[in-house]
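Morning run. Coffee first, then this:
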Amino acid sequence: MSTHPVPTYTPGYSPGAVRFMARRTAATHAHFLLPHLTTGTRLLDLGCGPGTVTVGLAEVVAPGRVVGVDAAAGQAETARAHAERCGAGNVEFESGDAAALRFGPGAFDAVFAHALFEHLPDPLAVAREAYRVLAPSGVVGVCSPDWDGFLLAPADPRADAAVAAYRTVQTRAGGDTGAGRKLAGWLLGAGFTRVTTGAWYECYPDRKRIAEYLAARLDRETDTAFSGLGDGLRAWADAPGALFAQAWVWAVGHRPA
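And here it is:
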């Protein structure tokens, strides 16, 4: 049984939040790992969510075995249904603790985690677990946002207040909105070598989509200090030419041979 703290997923699992996550694909959100994958690679996706990225990765490595793990059983069920619709026969999904995986040492050739480490109370423990289940010469690829790098325009105190409030919510839940720039350090601390990093921006042409995603979470807060902040962000998103650019940082590391 795991003795690690249970992570809290700040966005939650509302239908809107799940639809937002389901827009992600291997091409858009796992591009940094794709050059390291080949046919037959055994791959583990930690924090797989609704499985859209996982299924894309399964297509790349087929017939290699792919396993998606998520802390929420409902997410694993959603991902399983998506895989069935896509006819992906080499992928399976289950609920589990990323810090205490059931797999033996060397069970996988690649471990992937997108938008997971920023929610973890003990990221280093999960990095070490990824190292444990990787075979020698295996590769890990992780990606998390770094909120200090977000770009919002035009400048608006309502948007600034809403973003600051969301960061507070995530911090209170045990997460780290500055996780992106720390990924390489966690991988190195877990024993990975040849660690490389990079960053990219995800721009939302429909900024109302990301605004609603964040605002809906703020609406659920009972703290009166958050009252009206979600509506303020929604109003900002209506501004002509508004820009919301989300900063993502990725890190790739290798287990020594």
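The mean pLDDT is 92. Good start to the day.
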